[in-house]
Amino acid sequence: MADVILKDVRKSFGALEVIKGVNLTIEAGEFCVFVGPSGCGKSTLLRMIAGLEEVTSGTIEIAGEDVTYAEPSKRGIAMVFQSYALYPHLTVAENIGFGLSLAHTPKAEIKRRVEAVAKVLQLEALLERKPKALSGGQRQRVAIGRAIIRDPHVFLFDEPLSNLDAALRAQMRIELTDLHAKLGNTMIYVTHDQVEAMTMADRIVVLNGGRVEQVGTPMELYDSPATPFVAGFIGSPR
Ligand code: ADP
Ligand code: MG
């Protein structure tokens, strides 16, 4: 079932058109990776799906609703960024539950949901710690926890692992694919790293200069790249 549908989405900043008519259908429950070189428009496209950037033209549907001009909070999405700012003065539990406290959710329910999220992310033993007492990977898990607790329909990730070292990145890739298997919701994951894309994605969208070059499973892209750009990009060493 189609979950996120983009129809001829375009974005210009002043005279510069950076997204040049993207048509895309993302299936419910799919782990979809947008990959492409720096500056090709990955973040801009993701930010338009999140509602953090307005489209210049085109439409965006999520879960059967036209959300092209809807507030970010009305789209059923949660986004995890590369630079995840945790609140340094709050504990892990308070960081994860922060959005729910803002919404005046009863304390007992916050506690129950924070504990459930902590279990999924293996943060149970760290709930009373402050961010400065955590490793990079643990902090990233807390940032993901803050997104999960809102029970989003669609998860959006913008290069969430690029600030981590290689070993931790490899571990977090596995954790994120496990998380996807557990939660089963739709995930759109942006990266410039083709290895990350090839190892994590159900389906890859290759972007180049604001356009979709090819959409396919990792095997499809590997076996039959549609353009020299795709062949070069997927095949290039990091
Ligand atoms: P990526 O995430 O793939 O690296 P971006 O979506 O960040 O690419 O950027 C795509 C293009 O849009 C780049 O040329 C970038 O300079 C430009 N761009 C992004 N945001 C803005 C903005 N707020 N104002 C002007 N240009 C922007
Ligand atoms: Mg980006």
From TrEMBL:
It comes from Martelella endophytica. Its main location: membrane. It is found in: Cell inner membrane. GO terms for molecular function: ABC-type maltose transporter activity; ATP binding; ATP hydrolysis activity. This is Glycerol-3-phosphate ABC transporter ATPase. The keyword ATP-binding applies. Belongs to the ABC transporter superfamily. Keywords: ATP-binding, Nucleotide-binding, Transport. It is a peripheral membrane protein. Residues 4-234 form the ABC transporter domain. GO terms for cellular component: ATP-binding cassette (ABC) transporter complex, substrate-binding subunit-containing; maltose transport complex. The keyword Nucleotide-binding applies.
